[in-house]
């Protein structure tokens, strides 16, 4: 079987601090577009790749996380949308569109197919399966409904609120009849939160010198639910502003991922005083909710009741910069890399 | 109505840092042993008073806690066991024994009787109603069974484990078939944990230079449940040793109560990685469980399946020193002050 050329993004070596261009490089290898004889693997053409905050911890060596570190010298792994070119697996056939765990390259031979899901409908943008209809969407859904146990009328705060997960949490909370405030790192994002996603209020955390006072201004009655995507100083300020029996969904802590020395959170005593439940979660524990989630979200998307904003870059070559940009908040909305459109 | 003399412990003024002798003083006032005409108050003779860690935050001014700060120049409030001398309230009669919120004095006129509970049985030591049969007992019960949702065979770690609450949590966990390790601050307490309370293992945290390594030694498989009475550095070390889907009951943070600047906890990212639920609670939310708790614990006490260790001092004059001693760990077991034995 003839091999074709296969452009790839290679992870160079373990890092500390902020990732840079130099930590990844583009190479071209070759690949056969057939799965090996007798294998249950799936051979896909990658269409859209997802840049996600959890990818940063994978760039540092650890044996103690829910997901393995990247391997130096190997292609970067991540979520994506792909088209099946050949399949040895009974669940997948040539021509199927799938989303799930793939690699940052033009073509991938996927041997671990447990994390691959067939795309049920294409009457929404296909790239949505890297975001609202993929892992980040399910994260927002499980995190908000299962972890936060929200009630109508409650006061909800979302950090990194214009990101892939945050924008959805805010909209889910509004649909339920909550009061929702979001924070983000630029005027453009704050405008998006208020004008496009329908948050009640939004603020630029970079312009606030006193986060505790800022949150008190937006939540004079306190916060019932905090959907935490950032950790660190923001979490510390939130703890001082929680209401009795409040809930904190610990979804991500992007403020800490590039630090060599983690910031200390000082106000945990408020977890006792306010009888707060803080719960961390990893989306792989909630995949069983995916069909239920789709059933809920697809009609909302089609009716325009939930909107989704993506920040797309073109070409695999752009992927390293796109991933790096996440950690300085350069993206506006969900960061997607277009490898091929079909 | 003639008045009698009434010795009292007065709270002097708000403090920072560790409390000292000079922050309380003994005075003698007078009191009528009758409730005022038409009042629904209860007039009691105080028998046993309880020294509890949560009393320290009340010595600093705050409006942001679940319990009010003490009033400078006023008698100290706290849990105790008392005998009713006169009552304007239909639920209480002369001669009743009660436990609940009273004051550090010989006789108290209790106007807020919602926190007063009639003592159902006296075939156990009466002082137990400041501890195993009172607030700390209910705290251990609700904290362990409701907050920690324990399962047989799980790995349980308790800090301040020889204290009023900790010694019970350990014994409840053993009864359920868990593996239990406790920490305390002296050899005497460690011996107590192993030899009297039946913990599987115990260690003196003051002798450990590396708490993370120490916990790894006692929990090579990790910790399923951490019952946290201390917060701070210990909590930080525990976070690195939690198992997937672990639970942390945030019951108290005595390591922080005397600090002007709270310690930062750096390892919260593990709440996400390990999908941990950390939940703070205040026992007033669980008073409805008291009858159920008594039903469980009384037979165990009578059969000797659960033991309880108290550290008693005699006389109201000893109360300030006894309270202060809590914060340096001077007490061995539950700290009780005997005001009168009947």
Describe this structure in words.
The structure is a homodimer of 342-residue chains. The first copy, chain A, is of the alpha/beta class and 342 residues long. Chain A folds into two domains: 3-131 and 309-338, Quinone Oxidoreductase, Chain A, domain 1 (Alpha-Beta Complex), CATH 3.90.180.10; 135-284, Rossmann fold (3-Layer(aba) Sandwich), CATH 3.40.50. The first copy, chain A, has eight helices and 15 strands. Chain A has helices spanning 135-147, 166-176, 187-196, 211-218, 232-239, 269-273, 290-302, 319-326, and strands at residues 3-11, 24-32, 42-50, 77-87, 97-103, 107-110, 116-118, 155-158, 179-184, 201-204, 223-228, 242-250, 277-280, 310-314, 334-338. In chain A, strands 3, 4, 5, 6, 7, 14 and 15 form a seven-stranded mixed sheet that branches. In chain A, helix 2 links the parallel strand 8 (155-158) and strand 9. The longest helix of chain A is centred in the middle third of the chain and has 13 residues, at 135-147. In chain A, 50% of the residues are buried. Chain A binds chain B through residues 64-66, 231, 235, 240, 244, 250-253, 256, 261-282, 285, and chain B through 64-66, 231, 235, 240, 244, 250-253, 256, 261-282, 285. Strand 13 of chain A pairs antiparallel with strand 13 of chain B, so a sheet runs across the interface.
């Amino acid at each position: 079987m003839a091999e074709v050329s296969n452009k790839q993004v290679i992870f160079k070596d373990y890092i500390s601090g902020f990732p840079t261009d130099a930590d990844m490089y583009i190479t071209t290898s070759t690949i056969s577009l057939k799965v090996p004889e007798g294998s249950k693997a799936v051979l896909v053409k990658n269409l859209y790749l997802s840049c996600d905050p959890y990818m940063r911890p994978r760039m540092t060596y650890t044996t103690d996380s829910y997901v393995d570190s990247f391997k130096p010298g190997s292609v970067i792994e991540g979520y994506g949308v792909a088209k099946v070119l050949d399949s040895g697996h009974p669940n997948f056939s040539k021509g199927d569109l799938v989303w799930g765990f793939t690699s940052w390259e033009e073509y991938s031979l996927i041997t671990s197919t447990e994390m691959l899901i067939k795309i049920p409908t294409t009457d929404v943008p296909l790239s949505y399966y890297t975001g609202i209809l993929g892992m980040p969407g399910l994260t927002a859904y499980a995190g908000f409904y299962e972890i936060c146990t929200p009630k109508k009328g409650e006061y909800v705060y979302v950090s990194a609120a214009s990101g892939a997960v945050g924008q959805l949490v805010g909209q889910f909370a509004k649909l339920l009849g909550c009061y929702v405030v979001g924070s983000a790192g630029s005027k453009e994002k704050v405008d998006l939160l208020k004008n496009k996603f329908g948050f009640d209020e939004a603020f630029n955390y970079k312009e606030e010198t006193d986060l505790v006072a800022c949150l008190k201004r937006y939540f004079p009655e306190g916060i019932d639910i905090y959907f935490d995507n950032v950790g660190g100083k923001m979490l510390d300020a939130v703890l001082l502003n929680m209401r009795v029996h409040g809930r904190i969904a610990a979804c991500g802590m992007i403020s800490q991922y590039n630090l060599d020395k983690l910031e200390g959170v000082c106000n945990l005593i408020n977890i006792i005083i306010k009888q707060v439940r803080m719960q961390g979660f990893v989306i792989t524990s909630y995949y069983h909710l995916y069909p239920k989630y789709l059933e809920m979200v697809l009609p909302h998307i089609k009716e325009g009741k939930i909107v989704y904003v993506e920040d797309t870059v073109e070409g695999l070559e752009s992927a390293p910069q796109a991933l790096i940009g996440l950690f300085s908040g350069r993206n506006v909305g969900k960061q997607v890399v277009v490898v091929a459109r079909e």
